[in-house]
Amino acid sequence: MLPDIKGLVDRATDEIASCSSREQLEAIRIKYVGKKGELTALLRSMGELAAEDRPKFGQAVNVAKDDIEGRLAVKSDAIVLAEREKQFISQAVDITLPGRVRKIGNLHPITKGFEEICDIFVRMGFSVVEGPEVETDFYNFTALNTPPFHPARDVQDTFYITDNILLRTHTSPQQARQMEKQDPPVKVVVPGRVYRRDQVDATHSPVFHQLEGLYVDKGVTFAHLKGALEAFIKAFYGEDKRVRFRPHYFPFTEPSAEMDVSCFACGGKGCRICKGEGWIEILGSGMVHPNVLSTAGYDPEVYSGFAFGMGIDRIVSLKYGVDDLRLYFENDVRFLEAF
Ligand code: PHE
Questions:
Q1: Pairing of strands 186-195, 127-128
Q2: Which structural domain, as residue segments, surrounds residue 36?
Q3: Same domain flag for 124 and 253
Q4: CA–CA distance, 2 with 190 (Å, rounded to integer)
Q5: CA 68 – CA 71 distance, rounded (Å)
Q6: Which residue, of 90, 117, 133, is where some domain finishes?
Q7: Residue ID of nearest Cα to ligand 1 atom 5
Q8: What is the pTM of this model?
Q9: Is the peptide bond before 255 cis (omega within 30 degrees of 0)?
Q10: Does ligand 1 come within 6 angstroms of the Cβ of 172?
């Protein structure tokens, strides 16, 4: 009776098939084809067989050994492949995930407005300068032909820090500072924050923004003033806009005028936005008062100039249709991102 080689191969085949790790597979290899394995033991027992059975038996054992080793090799490859696949899956990068959006900020609409407006004046030859927000009484009023007794001081409700130091109520003090600082010609715009005691509502804020303009040279006339400001309005709001000048009073300009722009909504016919006027007031302006020139050390007999001051919050609001000033200060990102 020959030992059951086929049964041994079947057992090995089953075990290999159900094995799932390198370690198990190695154990199976040792168990069947290792030095002390079952097949090796069979070969050793060959001596017990009848001489004529030996060659056939030896051949059968070798075939079984090749068979088992072949299966072991195939399984080993399969295990390596499965392990690699598992590793790939566990380390996989999910390329379908949306990327992390890097939040980059954007300019505040007022800052953007300042930049656009300054750009237009720079193209007309103006330089951009800035001045202090904490001012002295002298520059905010006296140097601008508004001495202490002057009634025009009462029109603006000023934040005083001491009797002599205050938060500037307009950007005009930089007119005087600039003229003291340099010889004529002077041609500057002054963007900045200004302060007046006001109750906060849709159209008022104690903190707001102005852009001052000053051009002083020999022979500057009111025609230059009108030309520069009309060019600015058309560049900023569009060629279809018209402007008009109305006589007004400022202590530091003479003559003075307010400038209106034809209404954005109705084009001048009169509507709810312009309160039926057809025009919207946009800035104050005038020819620099001789007293302002001489206080700054310029000879008013030789030099003349124009100045203007515009409220940036209002000018930007009109351009973008913002109907409540408070939006500029509330820092709601949905509002800020809209520009
Ligand atoms: N400073 C004035 C204001 O705040 C505006 C102005 C500036 C008027 C320059 C004339 C010249 O109302």
A1: parallel
A2: 2-90
A3: yes
A4: 111
A5: 5
A6: 90
A7: 309
A8: 0.72
A9: yes
A10: yes
- Minimum CA distance residue for ligand 1 atom 7: 309
Alpha carbons 205 and 198: distance in angstroms, whole number: 6
Q: Are 289 and 147 in contact (CB under 8 A)?
A: no
Q: Which amino acid is at 300?
A: P
- Asked if the peptide bond before residue 185 counts as cis, ω within 30 degrees of 0, the response is yes
Please give the distance, rounded to the nearest whole angstrom, from the Cα atom of residue 285 to the centre of ligand 1: 6
Q: Are residues 75 and 127 in the same domain?
A: no
Does residue 311 line the site of ligand 1, with CB under 6 A? no
pLDDT digit of tens for each residue in the chain (339 aa)?
567 888 889 999 999 999 989 999 999 999 999 899 888 888 888 888 888 888 888 888 889 999 999 999 999 999 999 999 999 999 988 888 888 888 888 899 999 999 999 999 999 999 999 999 999 999 999 999 999 988 888 767 899 999 999 999 999 999 999 999 999 999 999 999 999 998 899 888 999 999 999 999 999 999 999 999 999 999 999 999 999 999 999 999 999 999 999 988 888 888 888 889 999 999 999 999 999 999 999 999 999 999 999 999 999 998 888 989 999 999 888 898 888
User: What are residue 285's DSSP bridge partners?
Assistant: 257, 308
CA of 69 to the centre of ligand 1 (A): 100
Per-residue tokens: 259: 């400038």
Cα 132 to the center of its chain, rounded Å = 27
Residue to mutate (ligand 1; options 209, 252, 289; most atoms within 8 A of CB): 252
Tell me the two tokens of residue 107: 């300019």
